[in-house]
């Protein structure tokens, strides 16, 4: 009986509190993702109205790195809360057929949009500014692109760096310097 209880406790500990479930399309569905009509101009307007930053998360069915990010990184309560509070996330399927309207007005499938934007790997995240011109695409307007899977620290730092607008031209701390400083602060115990 004791072994059964120990196994049950171990199983509960191994499952993150915020693990995203798989949708019918085979992609992870976190509660902080938005289900929209994928008109990026409208999505940007909604994000701005909520005081949040628009980000496009491109994933694909069977992606082991997407799975790793959702199980090990996005499932962390602190990061999930930060994303939920500060970002308007629209998920796109690298091989999907759902129509997307880019900022330049072009209507195309998710897979065609990913090709247009030069996205080859999943997961990838495009972080958008608050204003995007009618002549820009999501890729050309992005203030940062996060291609691939990273650990909790790097991912948290990227979301924070974008949210705090540290990418601005007048900033003297690019992401690599910001991230290095944050790593040192965490090692020193001088930050969360």
From TrEMBL:
InterPro entries for this protein: SoxW (IPR041737), Thioredoxin-like_fold (IPR012336), Thioredoxin-like_sf (IPR036249)
- Span of the secretion signal? 1-19
Q: Which keywords does this chain's UniProt record carry?
A: Signal
Species assigned in the record: Litoreibacter arenae DSM 19593
**Which domain of life does the protein's organism represent?**
Bacteria
Kindly provide the name given to this protein in its UniProt entry.
Thioredoxin SoxW
Q: Which residues form the Thioredoxin-like fold domain?
A: 48-131
Q: Which SUPFAM superfamilies match?
A: Thioredoxin-like
